[in-house]
Amino acid sequence: MTQRSLEWQTARDDARSEPRWIRWIVISLAIIFLTIFVVLPLALVFTQAFSRGLGAYLGALADPEALSAIRLTLVVAAISISINLVFGLMAAWAIAKFEFRGKTALISLIDLPFSVSPVISGLVFVLLFGAQGFFGPWVQSHNIPILFAVPGIALATTFVTFPFVARALIPLMQEQGTMEEEAAISLGASGLQTFFRVTLPNIKWGVLYGVLLCNARAMGEFGAVSVVSGHIRGETNTMPLLVEILYNEYQFVSSFAIASLLAMLALITLVAKTILERHLDEGQPARGD
Amino acid sequence: MGLTLTWLSVIVLIPLAGLFLKTFELSFDQFWDIVTSRRTLNALKISFGLAFLAAIVNLVMGMIIVWALVRYRFPGRRLFDAIVDIPFALPTAVAGVALTSLFAQKGWLGAPLAELGIKVAFTPIGIFVAMVFIGIPFVVRTVQPVLIDLDTEIEEAAASLGANRWHTVFRVILPSLIPAMLTGFALAFARAVGEYGSVIFIAGNLPNISEIAPLLIVIRLSEYRYADATAIAVVMLLASFLIIFAVNRIQRWAQIRIPTH
Questions:
Q1: What percentage of chain A reaches a pLDDT higher than 90?
Q2: Could you tell me which residue, A101 or B140, shows the higher pLDDT?
Q3: What is the ipTM of this complex?
Q4: Cβ count near A106 (within 10 Å)
Q5: In this predicted model, what pLDDT tens digit does every residue of B144-201 receive, in sequence order?
Q6: Which CATH superfamily is domain B20-72+91-257 in?
Q7: Does A132 contact B226 at a Cβ distance shorter than 8 Å?
Q8: For A261, which residue in chain B has the nearest alpha carbon?
Q9: Which region, left, alpha or beta, applies to residue A8 given φ > 0 means left and ψ of -120 to 50 means alpha?
């Protein structure tokens, strides 16, 4: 590179960037802020969990109450993922492959649970199924346990995680358009065949992406579940609820041990999300802009 | 299509409609009395006021973080980029206990702050800290793609026309980021207003001082005062509808302003 083009390059860089001291301040502020607000709390969870050694940590996790909370959390997450998977596929299919009026309104409605306070998400189910609720008397007379039982927790969790799968699939399916489906149908495939052989393979990474985010939120949901669970020990406590109870009883090692499992779930989710995002980017043709 | 709507109704719309129906069981005077009672008003003021302040901090710090991540190269950049998402991914109860222990009087940060005479945990400052935590990703993640897509040729043009760097940043770059900044701000604000899990541990939860509105809903529920809980919930829900509406408007406005995107 000649002397002149080097000078030209520096001049270009100068025009597009800030003096070194400003760069330095901006980077330091960003790092300090993220360290205080994100890195330290995360590090604290693991230090507290292991503060009395590995034995105490494993002991806390092997406690029957902890095991039952872990089991319940897994069950609830599985239920809400399956429900939201079916819905998410249906909704994304309808929105991406068909034209109809009120489409934007429908998308906003699907997003609704994201903007509702988790406490309110729980409250609506208490109002529906509580003793004075709209369906409360009917549910009680038929002996169907909903509030303060697993179905209520699963319902509230499903509500809160409602948008994830649909949100992940809508843009993906919209971008892919309907050409391949039209080709399949014109070649004689049935609707279901088209869906399972053409559409689903195209969106598999998107489905995984939605399920991943849905799962993370389902396992970690606190506010909504806290309102409907009734906190029956060993029965209706999910992992986040147990974290709260143990913390309030000053059983910090046990509380942070459960919390560390949830924190690990969050970290694994983030890593998996990054990998999936790479797959999603590869799967799409380079965009023209 | 029909199935989608039915499903949506069963899981989301009917429960939410139930909430509004329940409020209609109250007369307007009853509703007004609940909403304007001192404890409710204070809880709403705390939730909305502190959420607004936290969203402002998120906006300013979010812009600094986004600028560092997109425009500069530094060791650990990709790691810090990934870290921004942790407040989304970390269950709120975990964030709550972690922040409380961090800022408690004997905590890693609480102890040095206590020596300066600043008490964070179990005060309104604690609520503010938790709300800042929960709002970090919003501004960063809404502004980041816009800043990445921004054409650097515009900056070069501005510079070659004699604008200094300050002018280029504040007159040329920042205006095209404003819609994304406002969207991120609104989302962070909405999230902080409704936030429960990460706040209640660190808040102290003293009525009228450090009691947030979602907690008051939970308290009223546990006292079987369903009408009170519902009335507060309706006020909060209307506020979040307004915010969604504002966000939609901002995005439409941004599309009109920048037709190439």
A1: 55
A2: B140
A3: 0.91
A4: 19
A5: 999 999 888 888 888 888 888 888 888 888 988 999 999 999 999 999 999 999 999 9
A6: MetI-like (1.10.3720.10)
A7: yes
A8: B94
A9: alpha
Nearest CB to B165: which of A18, A244, A263? A18
* A208 and A253 assigned to the same domain: yes
In order of A24, A119, B150, the CA distances from A146 in angstroms are 56, 17, 51
**Is residue B261 pLDDT above 80, yes or no?**
no
Provide the 8-state DSSP code for A285. P
Mean pLDDT, all residues of chain B? 90
Amino acid at A179: M
Specify whether A131 is located in the same domain as A22.
no
Q: Which domain holds residue A38?
A: 1-49
Decide: A14 and B158 in contact? Cβ < 8 Å: no
Provide mean pLDDT across the span A96-106. 81
Q: How far apart are CA B181 and CA B250, in angstroms?
A: 10
Tokens of A211: 């399920």
Q: In angstroms, what separates the C-alpha of A16 from chain B's closest C-alpha?
A: 6
B118-150: per-residue pLDDT in tens? 999 999 999 999 999 999 999 999 999 999 998
Alpha-carbon dihedral sign for residues A157, A160, A162, A168: negative
Q: Which two tokens stand for residue B5?
A: 């709507």
- Using the 3D structure, point to which of A49, A68, A83 is the last residue of a domain: A49
Residue A78 and residue A218 share a domain: yes
Taking CA–CA distances from A41, the nearest residue in chain B reads: B98
pTM for the whole structure = 0.89
* Sole residue written with tokens 């998410």: A88
- Residue at a domain's end among A9, A25, A49: A49
Flag if B194 and A90 touch (Cβ within 8 Å): no
